[in-house]
Structure formats: C-alpha cells, structure tokens
Specification:
By secondary structure, the protein is an alpha/beta fold. It is built from 28 helices and 29 strands. The longest helix has 21 residues. One of its GO terms (molecular function) is beta-N-acetylhexosaminidase activity.
Length: 817
C-alpha cells in the first residue's frame, strides 16, 4: 500500500516525480491511481479505502483495523426494525452480504425515531459510523441517516480486505440535493429511472425532480383529461400504478420525488389534446423539434384553472412530497399579445404587460396548489413579490439571480453550473457553489479575492464578442490591470452580469490568456492585445472565435469601469438557499446513454451539496484521483451502466480483437462541450426528436478521465521535470500503438471511415505532444505561442468531437514556459 507523505512530496521536485512515476505505472497497469495524503481531518484521503465521495463532515482515523470476511451479521436496534426491508435492500444494492454465521463481521444499526413512510424536506440524514474491534456500528436519529451511512460503509469496504478503525460523524450541508431527469423529450423506462435512483442514493442525493410534461410529450396518466396521454404521448407514459411504485421505491432509498407540471408555457402537448385551453385555439400537431414554442394556456379562460386544479389534485394523490414544480419558464408571448380577448382581460384587471399577466396566472395557480397542500416550486421566471415567501425558486439564470431571491426572503436552489446534460469537466461543477460569493477569485488559482486598484499603474478596457453557433453572441466587458512589475490581473463581465475576477493569467508579448467560470462553463481566453493576433475562447473543450476591441487605455488607478464585488449575503439570507439540483435535459440523451451522461460526474455535484464548503480547494486537488475510484465503484458495486453503454458502440462497429485498442485510443476524444453539439445539429436540421443519436460522440464519456488524471500532476509544477516528461512520453506511445492497430478501421474503406478526420487529428496531436515533450525545457516564447496555435487548430470540433489531448495542451505549455 502506498503510504508516502504527499505533503513533503508536493514540496519536493524529487518527491513529486516519484509520486508521478508510481501513478503512471498504476494507470498503465489498468488500476486506479492513488495518491497518498496527510492524516484524515480537513485533508484528502489517507489511502484508497477512504476514497469517499461525498466526503464526510467529520472523519477521524483511529489505530487498528477490522479484518473483512465478506459477510455481515446484522443487528437492528431501536426503531431500525420498522424499516428492516429498506435496510436489507440498501445492503443488497451495495453488495454487502448478510449471513448470520460466526465468521461474519458484526453490523449494528440503531435508529432513534419513528419516521413517516416518505422522506420530506425536514428529514434528517445525519449519522454516526464507528468502526472498531467489535465491528461496525451505525447510529442515526432517523432511517434516512442510516441509509446514508450504509452508502458510506459500502464505499469504505470497496475492494478492501481490511477496514481501518474510523469515527465518522456526518450530515449534509444542504437539505436539497437533487437531480432532474427529463422523461419528455426522450422517454425513460421505469427500470432505467430506478437504476438512476440507486445511483442517487449511492451519492447521497435526496430529491428526484421528475420532468413529466413539455412541448414534445405528456408522460403521466390523467384520469380527468385522458386525451393527454391518448393523443400527446406516442403511447409512452407512466401509469398511475407505475408512478406509485416508483415513488415508493425512491422512498425506500431515502429519496423524495417532486413532479414537474409545466404551466402555462411549454404547452404544445396540451394544445394537441385540448386546444380549447390554448390562447390561440386551433388544430395542433405533436411538436418534434427542440426549442421554445408559441402555445400558451389562456389565463382569461376559467376552464384553464379547472384544468390545473384537477391535474394538481391527481398529482397530489400520486406524489406525497409537499412541493410541486409548475415550470413557469420561457413564456414566449405572441399568443397573448395577439389575442384581443386576452388583451381585454388584461385591461380589465389592470395588468400592464405580459409579465404581469404571467404573475396573475401564477397567483391563481399558487392558491390551487395550497388547496391541495402543496408548495409552489418553479424556475426563475415565477419570481414576483406578490407570491408568498413559501414558494421555492429554481435558478437556471445563475448566481446573480439566486442572490436576488435569497436577499428578498425567497427560498431558492441553484441549477446553473450543475446542468449535467451540458458536457463539462467535473472540476467546473466542483467549483460551483449555491452560496458562493460570485465574484471572488478561487484561491486555488493564486489570484487574490479582490482587485487592488491602488496598485494599478496602467489599465485597459476591452469590449469582447463571442459569436455562438445558435442564438445571439455573448458580449463581454474586460478590464486588464497592470502593476509596477507589469503583472496582469483583471475582471470580466459577460452579458451585463456582475464581474468576476479572471484567473491563471499568462502574458507573452502581445498575447494574454486567462480563465473564468461562467454559466456556459469554464472559459479559457486566448486574446490578442493588437488586431493582428489570432484569438479564441475555449468553452470547456470547444473552441469559439473571439472578437475584441480596445475601448480605453490609461495610466493610473482611476478605472472608469470599477470592480465592485457584491456584499456578502447575511447568514439568514444564506439560509434561504436550500441547495442545488443537477439537471439532465434529454434532447441528446436516451435510455441507451443516460448513465454515461450522468455518472460518475454526478458524484462530484453530490459532494458540493453534501460536504463542507471549506474543503473544496483541498479536495479539488485530488478530484480526478478520487473520481477514478468512484467510477469503478459506481459500475461494479452500484450497478450503473455507464461502462456498458460506452462499450456498446465499438461492440457494434468493430471486430472483437480491435475493441480493446479502441477503448484505449478513444481516451483521446471527448464530445464537444457546452451546447456545441446541440447547435451544430440545429444548423444541420437534426435538432429534433426523430434525429438518431447513434454517433461516436453519443457514446463517449463527457470527459476523458485518463487524460485528466494524467495531466493533473502537471499542475503542481512550474518548471519542466525530466522524469515527469519521460513518463508522459510513455503514455503517448501507448496511445500511438492503439492508433496503429486501428489505422485500417479509420481508413477510407474501414468500418470507421466517417471518422477518419478526427482520427488524423488525434494522431497529429500525439505527434505534436511528443515533439513538445522532447523540447519542453528549451522553448522560446515564440515557439510556445506557435505550439499553442498548432494545438488549437487540432482541437477544433470534428464530427461533434474534440481531441482532448490538444484541447488540454495548455497545461503542459505552462510548465514549458
């Protein structure tokens, strides 16, 4: 077992090199890379069997170890026996075998309180887990905490023969730790949903937000309005019996289920079944395309409120949770504007515009929900000061938005930055935080948490434009500050949002590069300080063009576009932020690749919502190391299907003797990040429900864990290290060998001939990276700039994919500076 002191190793070039050598040997051997760490407390794991995710609030290692026999004797105390079936199910789900024999380890579970049949927003998930010579003891006030503790025990014992003695006292940071699954755009069978619920339980997520209605379909059986499922579901919907079954199954895992009924917009499916309720009555066909469409319910029609009342009543019978999500987003108003009847209704009720009409509708709807003992939940657009403070607002517009709600006494949860259908790197999700002060710089970047204007000797202000493949361009306002040593810092505002401090600033003559997180994902700018320079911005791994224009350039610290961080939320205001929720919209997701899109990244989001905020920067350093272990755990113990789904594509395309080489070579590739693939399909008229999702990009993981793990240690270095570069060269050679095996398959006559261009870019990226490794310590600034441009060209999107090695080349380039 690897027990080196990583604190010393990280501060010693020799120690770090040895650590890297060991890690790469493990990677090439096919096993998980494991870095040692200092003793357990607020520090990363001590050894592989403490690769917990989410990381507990408090964990202490004690002297001694428990020999694991592979079986457990189970003893239930207090109220635990009232939920015996749930406990046994949780143990079985995690391959913790219960056999009452003398060789089995003792497992005692004590629950102090009697609970209801279903978890609620007030449920307690805290627990204590003790490992000692007498076995394992779990104590929790409620069954939900005991179920969470079983997940911790399963991770502790994963691939272990000895279990160290621990004292764990754990509880979640946020009460709302959710996942939205969209079952409308692509239908998700019940067994697929159940599998994701088991994954949620393993990650200690506790709210399943079930998106059941939208423009492209109606997915639950209605008793009062049967034409909804008869005419607007294509026969794909959940019966009442199935819904009851799933809600009960979720409860047994400690998970609440909150349904979403979209009103008054996203109503195309309602228009197909009951057009008389729509602001513009007429004959409607099923909507097959993705986007925002015109059909809106008619707020002037009393039958609409009867319709809402009956449906809310039906959902109240099926879903015991106290919250019901009403959507309320993306109200596209032409039908309201063009209706003489609705305009007359607005005048009669002194409603000045369509925003006020929407608020009127929501006030009526809120009273209907209250009648059925439900709290209203909806997206940002439902916010209105006339609504009571017990509503819950889910923010897709970002941290600025949720701060506004929280500061005015409304409760909210954050989804911006947790859009899991949007391919992004896990460390981006990990840096996201619902209660974060939006505008502080991350301490791990080395940039201070404020801008010192007093130290500014010279500053420049630029107007930036990022053209997108679909929709309007993103506008930026960038201020660069130069101190007496000509070091650069600065801040950036995008689309008039509050400015954020830029990080990881690098300047080489007429080029400046920097990073900043945004609602689109992590942004990496390569900007020219004069008009002759090639410039771009990376959104995740996807390259977009960048336009810049110098607006001001002056001496001194009197900056006209001053940086003004917002005041910290008060503690009561922070308490209004209940947590966060990952969102999986299914335009590009089917039952055949849903696990691959969710896992293992969802464990990262889960940790941000469970664990201490203060541990973020410490744990971020070891994120991909831990995620690699969790990746195996999720497949081998929890039974998630992300690995099988990834292998299904090459299994259908390649002979068996080539599939292993493809698995290695495909580590070089990632699907294009952000909504790049969505926008490309829109341009090709393939952005609709009937378009096949059977490309290589559909069956690649969102990020290459192999590349992320390989490159992470390079972030520790400021200058080249020969041993590290040698080991990197070994891995590059391994990818080259896999490519040689697959060369004929990617040829013009080969099975994968459609992907020959991306294959050629991958091979060229390997050649260029090997060249860079061999010359790293001898490069001039001009050569570094040239390498950066060459890698950037190789990182251009091809067949909706990106060569991840080229897209991440900056990590090595910084070492070679």
């Amino acid at each position: 077992m690897f027990l080196a002191n990583s604190v010393k190793a990280k501060n010693s070039k020799l120690g770090a090199s040895w650590l890297w050598t060991f890690s790469l040997v493990m990677l090439l051997a096919g096993g998980p890379i494991s870095y040692a760490a200092s003793p357990v407390s607020d520090h990363p794991p001590v050894e592989p069997n403490t690769m917990l995710m989410p990381w507990p609030m408090n964990i202490e290692r004690e002297k001694g170890e428990l020999h694991l026999t592979g079986h457990w004797q189970l003893k239930l105390e207090g109220k635990a026996s009232e939920h015996k079936d749930w406990v046994i199910q949780a143990l079985a789900n995690n391959e913790l075998s219960i056999e009452p024999n003398q060789q089995a380890n003792r497992l005692t579970i004590k629950v102090e309180e009697t609970n209801t049949r279903y978890p609620s927003i007030d449920s307690q998930y805290s627990y204590q887990l003790s490992v000692g010579e007498n076995g394992v003891t779990i104590t929790a006030s409620q069954i939900w905490g005991a179920l969470a503790a079983i997940q911790t025990l399963a991770q502790l014992t994963y691939q272990q023969q000895q279990l160290a003695f621990y004292q764990i006292s754990d509880y979640p940071r946020f009460v709302w730790r959710g996942l939205l699954i969209d079952s409308v755009r692509h239908f998700m069978p019940l067994d697929v949903i159940k599998r994701q619920l088991r994954g949620m339980a393993a990650a200690k997520l506790n709210v399943f937000h079930w998106h059941l209605t939208d423009d492209q379909g109606w997915r639950f059986e209605s008793v009062h309005y049967p034409k909804l499922q008869q005419l607007a579901s294509d026969g794909q919907y959940y019966t009442r019996a199935q819904i009851k079954e799933l809600v009960q199954y979720a409860a047994s895992l400690g998970i609440r289920v909150v349904p979403e009924l979209d009103l008054p917009g996203h109503a195309s499916a309602i228009a197909v079944a009951y057009p008389e309720l729509i602001a513009k009555p007429g004959e409607y066909q099923m909507e097959r395309h993705w986007g925002v469409f015109e059909p809106l319910l008619d707020p002037s029609n009393e039958a609409v409120y009867t319709f809402a009342d009956k449906l809310v009543g039906e959902l109240a019978e099926l879903f015991p949770d106290s919250y019901l999500h009403i959507g309320g987003d993306e109200i596209y108003p032409p039908q309201w504007k063009d209706s003489e009847k609705i305009q007359a209704f607005m005048a009669k009720n002194n409603l000045q515009n369509e925003t006020q009409l929407h608020a009127y509708f929501n006030l009526r709807l809120q009273k209907i929900l209250a009648k059925h003992h439900k709290h209203m939940m909806g997206w940002d657009e439902i916010y209105d000061e006339q609504l009571p403070r017990d509503i819950l607002i889910q923010s897709w517009r970002g941290l600025d938005s949720i701060r506004q709600f929280a500061s005015q006494g409304y409760q909210g949860i954050l989804s911006t930055g947790f859009y899991i259908d949007q391919p992004q790197y896990s460390d981006f999700h990990y840096r996201n935080d619902p209660q974060k002060v939006v505008y502080e710089a991350e301490s791990e970047t080395g940039i201070s948490s404020h801008v010192d204007l007093a130290g500014t000797k010279h500053w420049q202000r630029y107007a930036l434009t990022i053209p997108r493949l679909k929709g309007s361009s993103v506008k930026g306002d960038l201020t660069l500050l130069y101190d007496a040593d000509n070091q650069v810092s600065g801040y950036l505002s995008l689309n008039n949002q509050t400015a954020r401090i830029i990080a990881n600033v690098w300047r080489a003559q007429d080029i400046v590069s920097f990073e900043v997180d945004s609602w689109m994902g992590p942004l990496r700018f390569h900007m020219g300080l004069n008009s002759d320079c090639e410039q771009w911005v990376m959104i995740g791994n996807a390259s977009y063009s960048l336009e810049s224009q110098l607006i001001e350039s002056r001496k001194g610290n009197r900056v006209t576009q001053a940086y003004a961080p917002l005041a910290e939320l008060t503690d009561p205001q922070k308490q209004n932020i209940l947590g966060g929720e990952a969102a999986l919209w299914s335009e590009m997701v089917t039952a055949g690749n849903i696990d691959l899109r969710l896992w293992p990244r969802l464990f990262v989001v889960a940790e941000r919502l469970w664990s201490k905020a203060s541990r973020r920067n410490i744990m971020l350093t070891h994120l991909y190391e831990r995620l690699n272990t969790i990746n195996g755990y999720a497949a081998e113990v929890v039974g998630l299907s992300h690995r099988q789904q990834q292998k299904s594509w090459p299994a259908a395309k390649l002979p068996q003797d080539k599939q292993a080489a493809f698995e290695v070579f495909s580590q070089l590739l990632e699907p294009a990040h952000y909504y790049t693939r969505h926008h490309l399909k829109f341009r090709q008229d393939l952005y609709h429900q009937m378009a096949p999702l059977n490309r290589m990009a559909d069956y690649l993981p969102v990020e290459s864990l192999a590349i992320q793990q390989l490159l992470t240690p390079l972030k520790e270095f400021k200058t080249p290290d020969k041993a590290v570069l040698n080991e990197l060269a070994i891995k590059l050679s391994q990818w080259q060998q896999a490519g040689d095996i697959l060369k004929t398959e990617f040829s013009r006559s080969g099975t994968l001939s459609d992907y020959s261009a991306v294959f050629n870019k991958s091979k060229a990226s390997l050649d260029l990276m090997q060249e860079l490794v061999s010359q790293c310590s001898e490069l001039s600034i001009e050569q570094l700039k040239d390498y950066r441009q060459r890698f950037h060209r190789l990182a251009q999107v091809e067949q909706e994919m990106v060569v991840a090695l080229a897209a991440n080349a900056d990590i090595l380039l910084r070492v070679c500076m």
